[in-house]
Amino acid sequence: MIYFFWLFALLALIGALGVLLETHPVRGALYLLLAFLSIGFLYILAGAPFLGFVQIIVYAGAVVVLFLVAIAVMSLRRIPDDRDLGPRGFLALVFAGAFFLVMLALLRHAPVPAAPTPTPGAPQPLAEALFRQYLIPFEIVSVLLLVAIVGAIVLVRRRPGP
Amino acid sequence: MNPTLYLLLSLLLFGLGAAGVVLRRNTLFMLLNLELMMNAVGLALVAASLAGLLEGQLIVLMVLAVAAAEVAIGIGILVSMVRLKDSPLVDLWNREEP
Prior knowledge:
The complex is a heterodimer of chains A (162) and B (98).
Chain A: H1 2-21, H2 25-45, H3 49-74, H4 87-108, H5 123-133, H6 135-156
Helix pairs in contact in A: 1-2, 2-3
Chain B: H1 3-23, H2 27-50, H3 55-85, H4 90-93
Helix pairs in contact in B: 1-2, 2-3
């Protein structure tokens, strides 16, 4: 099990590095697909198989396809190297590194339970909690999705010329 | 499975995503890195549910739906801005029309 964890962790990090450094949009989206798939398998390894499959369907399926469709719609003729490697980019990297170190120090002092108890990762307890205790957030999120669909259509609609 | 390993991995992914958001000027890649950061947070929450909290997985489900909405709107804004300015680079978006 632990070997699978290291394998998928390595693949997720490779995907993240690819998204960070790649300049071609399609290859960047495919690196993101690699990271999403690895994180989905990590969910399954962590005892959350339902979330793992939802992650693979929604993120690795829908979101990456949406990005690829957007890249195709924009049909960028020239792809500039957009990595900011001047002093501004260096400063940004310094701040990102500082954030990483602060969070690492927090993690070292975080209270982690000594004996992790395996949660019921089956869909049934999740659904029980979602449809009984957390029903109102669920409904709000579904309204949000509807608003997002309508908003996306309104945003990219070509308006009739004057 | 050790939750600390999951938290460490999620921290690494979040740091890489944050570095990508501030390092890149192509808006498409900034959106990709934002998605990566959201996934890193989800991984941390699943690690919390590894320690016995079912709510972690529920929050990840909600974040997933919100992220799907965010991607739809974000790509809509991106496509209409690229139509307007003919480039995905944020530096060129900042310039006023002559």
